[in-house]
Amino acid sequence: MYDETYFSEKVSGSGRAVYIKRNYQMIDQSHFCVIYFDENNIPATRESGTKIALEYAIKSKKEVII
User: Fold this and answer.
1) What is the pTM of this model?
2) Upper half-sphere CA count for residue 62 (Cβ side, 13 Å)
């Protein structure tokens, strides 16, 4: 159950990259990040959105729990 929904104007119109921009914004607004990432299940045909988020959180110096 939740009280409200938040949709960022920064993400609107992002096209296929919407999930990356959404993840960046969530990371920017967080004090720490809990990320489930399994290196054995990285997609072979595209870049992993979870890996992109993990690398961004580390680069942003967030406390990361993997």
Assistant:
1) 0.80
2) 23
Helix (H) or strand (E) run with residue 64 in it: strand 63-65
Query: What's the Cα-to-Cα distance from 1 to each of 4, 5, 8, 47, rounded to whole Å?
Result: 9, 11, 20, 32
pLDDT tens across the length of the chain (66 residues): 667 777 778 777 778 888 898 899 999 989 999 999 999 999 889 899 999 999 999 999 999 998
